Amino acid sequence: MSTETPLAGFPITARWPAQHPDRLQLYSLPTPNGVKVAIMLEECALPYEAHAIDFGADDQHSAAFESLNPNGKIPAILDPDGPGGKPLALFESGAILLYLAEKTGKFLPTDPARRYQTIQWLMFQMGGVGPMFGQVGYFVKFAGKDIEDTRPRDRYVAEAKRLLGVMDRVLDGRAWFMGDDYTIADIATLGWVRGLVNFYEAGDLVAFDRFANVKAWLDRGLARPAVQRGLSIPARP
């Protein structure tokens, strides 16, 4: 009788062995993108095993990691119990959030109209908030801060302010993007807003205190125990 697990055929498990091969495997780091999936897993209470991808060692560009995600970005997952009971490898944080929401029946409305409205705010984060806030971070905290020409930085700061303004208007009178329903739209966005203010330290630059509804929404999100746990998973190498 074969003793191989459903994950044995995936090369990534040779580099990051699964101690619990019956659990969903998460390959990530607690970056604004990475924490989305960790938070979702904690919110859903799904059994999983987290593997830290060390950017300092260039793990994300290793052959082992790229066998799972050819784009060389975190997060990625390997679910031994995917559709039809077969293993599923998946990358792109938005796709993973949708998959986990549908797998568990949580944090994505079942009403078709509200489902697509939730997905639109998820896409808003994926296409706008993440890329633009990340560019602000590059010019404020990383190599971009040494560029003397301030026009590139100012362009991304202006766009970050615009996006925060959009969020502030939609959150006026709402607890979450979808009103009373906390969804994957919130889970996707929390880490990025927190990162803009706390990690990139760009709060003053984008006048974050002007966006009272966003600030209150962020405080509500950060008060959730699952969010607090997810923000530090996996532990950095």
UniProtKB/TrEMBL annotation:
Tell me which PANTHER family the record gives. DISULFIDE-BOND OXIDOREDUCTASE YFCG, GLUTATHIONE S-TRANSFERASE-RELATED
Alphabetically ordered keywords of this record: Transferase
Superkingdom assignment? Bacteria
Name the Gene3D superfamilies on file: 1.20.1050.10, Glutaredoxin (3.40.30.10)
* Domain GST C-terminal positions: 111-237
Please tell me the species this chain comes from: Sphingomonas panacis
Q: Does the keyword Transferase apply?
A: yes
UniProt xrefs under InterPro entries: Glutathione-S-Trfase_C-like, Glutathione-S-Trfase_C_sf, Glutathione_S-Trfase, Glutathione_S-Trfase_N, GST_C, Thioredoxin-like_sf
Q: What is this protein called?
A: Glutathione S-transferase
Per UniProt, what is one Pfam family of this protein?
GST_C
Q: Which CDD domains match?
A: GST_C_Ure2p_like, GST_N_Ure2p_like
- Please give one Gene Ontology molecular function term for this protein: transferase activity
Q: What are the residue boundaries of the GST N-terminal domain, all occurrences included?
A: 21-108
